[in-house]
Amino acid sequence: MRTRQAVASLSPQLVNFEPAWSEDGWFAALHVAQHGICVWCASGVRGSPGTIEHIRPKAEVTRALRTPGEEIDAPGHRRGRSLLPGEPLKPGYYTQAYEPDNLAYACERCQSWKSTLWPVVPRTGPWCAPSPGLGEEELVLDPFAPGFDPLLHFRFTPSGEILARPGDVRAEVTIEVLGLDRRETLCKQRRDLYQELLSRISSIRHALSASTLTADEKRVLPHVAVCCAWSSSHAAFYRAALRHELAQRSLPWVQINQAWTNHGQLAIKEPAMDTWLS
């Protein structure tokens, strides 16, 4: 997962942000720092080079969820966004247009879906030149916040659905604003990842218990560790699914962590039981 210092360390010549955000140096630095993973949907960017995203909109801001819209995500099925009316307000967070902390690598779909939406509390009162922290609580979760763990906010299902934890308003708003429940793309990607895990679970189980392993079984635990890393697509979903499948087979998470550390890999925090809803 990208840190706020990563871009500066990767491109020291850009620390003062003299070039515009659209120039190749910043795009490349952000892409590398985030391992080609979209800041919002956590998928590897496919079918396009991706884009630089202003986390807080720079030109104009829509503070309320606005303008009803629809997305066709399956033949004959339309999914509407439950949005509230609201007109874009100007100026946007123009003071952060060149701030590295306000920039991220994103897929074009998420950038388009989010558009100028940036809901905050309170949503009333006069608009002025914005600056974060001036009596407003941002309702979209910050994926770069210190210690941020998506599994503290979201839960998943075998069909690839993402759900907010009960009472987590920011998680609910984040799903809505970013369209993280897009069925024809994101849910399908997560579902396919789960099927891939299921195809390997017997090998994983054997690799954790047997003394003699096949060549494929020797590779399976490093592969699973890579899938769990934040530098991989949908890592939070994969961790939740893996924890569930291990528990179903009475294999404690500490056992796979021990196997990883024995092979020189980092231990990974065990997800909570309720991060997976069967």
Describe the protein's architecture and organization.
The protein folds into 2 domains: 6-140, no CATH class; 185-275, no CATH class. 35% of the residues lie in helices and 10% in strands. The chain has helices spanning 6-10, 24-33, 108-114, 169-178, 183-209, 215-228, 235-248, 253-262, and strands at residues 51-54, 70-74, 77-80, 103-106, 120-121, 137-138, 154-156, 162-164. The strands form 4 sheets. A two-stranded antiparallel ribbon has the order 1-4. A two-stranded antiparallel ribbon has the order 2-3. A two-stranded antiparallel ribbon has the order 5-6. Helix 5 (183-209) crosses helix 7. The protein is elongated and about 65 Å long.
The helix fraction, in percent, is 25-40%
Task: Choose one word for the global shape.
Answer: elongated
Output the helix-strand order.
HHEEEEHEEEEHHHHH
Distance between the termini: 27 Å
Assess the beta-strand content as a share of residues. 5-15%
The radius of gyration computed from the alpha-carbon positions, rounded to a whole number of angstroms, is 20 Å
Structural domain tally: 2
Instruction: Look at the helices and sheets and give the structural class.
Output: alpha+beta
Number of helices: 8
Average pLDDT rating: 81
Number-wise, the strands total 8
How are strands sequenced across the largest beta sheet?
Answer: 1-4
Parts with pLDDT < 50 across at least 5 consecutive residues: 10-18, 66-83
For the sheet with most strands, the description reads:
2 strands, antiparallel
